[in-house]
Specification:
The chain is an alpha/beta fold. It contains 9 helices and 17 strands.
């Protein structure tokens, strides 16, 4: 029997989609419960933490730890207890009947009794020159993760919504100055968040301005930026149209993107798993990892738009594994007592 055929017919106890901190934590707990979980590593193995060079706020690492190292340690730990890892992206999930079926981009189909969704949320980038090279080296998408590294720096925050205001207000605790760069002349942020930012003595604004290029190197970190401005806003569009624009070079020690995150839940859109307006997985009562589909659990940033920290993702990952273990045990007991559970379509 071929590997593809074997995958299409065998049924796993637990499949974990996502290999960031939440997925790895779930894998450790599920593996220690002898559930032999399969962890699917998607297009960004390790998740957002792999973009962070130093993690200083994860419990147990008083001297800090590299994001990639923390992920690799978690992967090694999960493997030690029996978790299996495989590269693959889920294109479609069939959750109306059990076992659940996951159709992968490779053409394989995975079948599983329980599913843990830990696919995370990808931060939006702005397309500035050199952002690929400098992400994690002075360029960040998380002020609470990296703000403390910028004590005494002048920093930029890109964005105009609540996320950007929150980033700026947090950074103002450490930085000498925070400049919010926004492509329009008015904010999308709520009134209270906008007022807090405007009233803060360390925070200033560059209106109708966008980030065009980031200066620096991985050795030196971010050292500056090139900004572009047009009085009518959206200056990058004006550049493309050949209009006259103003360019400015600024010296900064850090740049933070505050333009939001996109939950990686496309494969759940046509299922009964409930998603919020932004696409995050909704869990029951907001206090559990259970979803509207019995046997499907959410963990990490994919279901947490509020905290988005490595430590909270790890916590929800362990919760999801424990919830899945309990659910599988209860299901096994029910089948033993009354025969196989009749499969029903998921409730709307």
């Amino acid at each position: 029997m071929s590997e593809q055929s074997d995958r299409s017919t065998s049924v796993r106890d637990v499949v974990i989609v996502g290999s960031g901190v939440a997925g790895l934590s779930a894998a450790v707990y599920a593996a220690r419960a002898d559930l032999e979980p399969l962890v699917l590593e998607g297009p960004e193995p390790g998740g957002q933490l792999t973009l962070t060079t130093d993690v200083e706020n994860f419990l147990g690492f008083p001297e800090g730890v590299g994001g990639m190292e923390l992920i690799q340690r978690g992967k090694d730990q999960a493997r030690h207890f029996g978790a299996e890892f495989s590269h693959g992206s889920v294109e479609r999930a069939s959750l109306d009947e059990r076992p659940f079926e996951l159709d992968l981009a490779s053409g394989d189909t995975l079948r599983t009794g329980a599913l843990i969704v830990a696919t995370g949320a990808s931060a939006r980038w702005v397309g500035a020159e050199n952002e690929d090279e400098l992400m994690g080296y002075g360029l960040s998408t998380c002020a609470t993760c990296d703000g403390a590294f910028h004590r005494g720096d002048d920093v930029l925050v890109v964005g105009g919504g609540d996320s950007a205001m929150e980033e700026a207000l947090f950074l103002a605790k450490f930085a000498d100055s925070v400049t919010i760069v926004h492509r329009r002349d008015e904010l999308r942020a709520s009134d209270i968040m906008a007022r807090r930012a405007r009233d803060h003595e360390k925070i200033s604004f560059r209106w109708n301005t966008e980030l065009l290029e980031i200066h620096g190197s991985q050795a030196d970190g971010v050292t500056g930026a090139t900004l572009v401005r047009h009085p009518e806003g959206r200056p990058k569009e004006k550049v493309d149209a050949g209009a006259d624009v103003e360019y400015e070079t600024v010296d900064v020690g850090g740049i933070f993107y505050g333009v939001g995150h996109v939950p990686n839940t496309d494969f759940l859109v046509d299922t009964a798993v409930e998603l919020d307006d932004a696409g995050h997985v909704e869990t029951l009562d907001g206090r559990t990892t259970e979803t509207a589909v019995d046997g499907v659990f959410g963990a990490g940033d994919v279901m947490d738009p509020e905290y988005r920290q490595a430590i909270t993702a790890a916590g929800t990952g362990s919760m999801a594994a424990l919830d899945a273990e309990t659910w599988l045990e209860e299901r096994e007991i029910a089948e033993t007592q009354s025969g196989p559970v009749v499969e029903m379509e998921a409730d709307d």
